[in-house]
Specification:
single chain, 99 residues, mainly alpha, 4 helices, 82% helix, 0% strand
């Protein structure tokens, strides 16, 4: 079924997509059209996905044998647009391919 690694990869993907939607769609609409409904709509799911991403990263640090530098990169990726996509490709996908 779903391994814990696959769940982490899905959360990373969803967190990244929600962040991009919030940053590049909802926020401009809020300030350019004065319509905050999209920020309100996307804000809570993005916040929950962000917390889930960070929590999973903390839980899996030891399991994946990440050193402090790698762990910091994984955490910082959550606040950089497209960062979680990079983490998935660079760190998580190779782990899932190795089994």
């Amino acid at each position: 079924m779903f391994s814990s690694l696959n769940i982490f990869r899905i959360v990373a993907l969803l967190e990244g997509v929600s962040y991009l939607l919030l940053l590049f769609i909802a926020t401009p609409i809020k300030y350019l059209v004065n319509d905050p409904q999209y920020v309100k709509l996307l804000g809570m799911p993005h916040g929950l996905l962000f917390v889930a991403y960070v929590a999973l990263a903390v839980l899996f640090k030891k399991q994946f044998s990440w050193n402090n530098k790698t762990f910091l990169i994984v955490l910082l990726a959550a606040i950089i647009p497209f960062g979680t996509f990079y983490i998935d490709r660079k760190y998580l996908k190779p782990l899932s391919e190795n089994g």
